[in-house]
Amino acid sequence: MIIGLTGGIGAGKSTVARLFHQLGIHCVDADRVARDLVEPGTPLLAQLVAHFGPELLDRDQLNRAKLRQIIFQEPSAKAWLEQQMHPLIRAEIHRTLREPAFESPYQILEAPLLFENQLESLCHSTILVDTSVELQMERTVQRDGSTSATIAAIIASQMPADQKRLKADHIVHNSGDLDDLSAQVTRLHHQLIDNQTAKPETA
Ligand code: ADP
Question: How far apart are CA 108 and CA 28, in angstroms?
Answer without folding.
Answer: 6
